Amino acid sequence: MKEYEKLLFEERKRKETQKAVTEIKLGLFEQKEEQSFDFTAYTKMTYGKKYKGLYDLYQHNETFELAMVCPLIENNKNDYNERKDLTPYAYDVLYIEYLDEECYKFVLEAAIHEKNLWIPIAYHLAIVLYILLFVVTLGTSIYLITKDSFINVPLFCGSMWGAVVLSTIFLPILMMKYHKFKAN
Fold first, then answer.
1. I want to staple 91 with a disulfide (CB 3.0 to 4.6 A). Which of 37, 77, 129, 135 is the partner?
2. Are 64 and 98 in contact (CB under 8 A)?
3. Nearest 5°: phi and psi at 73?
4. What pLDDT is recorded for position 126?
5. What is the pLDDT of residue 113?
6. Buried b (16+ CB within 10 A) or exposed e, 160-175
């Protein structure tokens, strides 16, 4: 294997590992306990550390499906190190759903909207706070006009009306950004 082929293979391993971990976090896998696992039909694609320190990533040579494999070994933990001479009694395998690049991008975009609950909450909270600020400012101004002279209103409510004006400018911008976010 030439040097550039090694670099390209390492980059492919990195991308596949990142894709597999993302799909696992999204729940796009099926977990099975297999008595045996045919390692000859798979290429090891683990990049860097093992997933959760246990799972190695493998890619099927013909179908390109990904699988995370963890050998299950009893009494493998000693006080100081793991024993490598024990044979596994079974394999815990996470079969990751095969997604092409286009489908994977759509799933990532959909997951962003499903997982991100704070944006709609912040949007609706901003509208409620704007209405509350407007009502309080208007109520305070009317109260001061009826109880005091008109000259005291700009002194006491000037900063509040300034905040209402700024909020009135920024609220439509926020609404446009939010609707653009929801459309994507």
1. 37
2. yes
3. -130, 130
4. 94
5. 64
6. bbeebeebeeeeeeee
- From the list 66, 15, 72, the residue with the least C-alpha distance to 44 is 66
**In the block, residue with structure tokens 């990751």:** 96
Cα 16 to its chain centre, rounded Å, is 17
Structural tokens at position 60 = 């099927």
Tell me the per-residue pLDDT of 97-140, one tens digit each, with 9 for 90 and over.
Answer: 888 788 888 887 777 766 677 888 889 999 999 999 999 999 98
Assigned token pair, 144: 């001061």
Euclidean distance between CA atoms 107 and 37, whole angstroms = 29
Residue 162 has pLDDT above 90, yes or no: yes
Asked if 28 and 66 touch (Cβ cutoff 8 Å), the reply is no
Edge-to-edge strands, sheet with 42-44: 29-34, 90-96, 66-72, 56-60, 42-44
What is the helix (H) or strand (E) element at residue 72, kind and residue range? Answer: strand 66-72
As a whole number of angstroms, the distance between CA 25 and CA 27 comes to 5
* Sole residue written with tokens 């975009």: 109
How many whole angstroms separate alpha carbon 70 and alpha carbon 91? Answer: 6
Token representation of residue 87: 């044979």
| Cβ contact 170:177 at 8 Å | no
Question: Could you tell me the two tokens for 118?
Answer: 């704070």
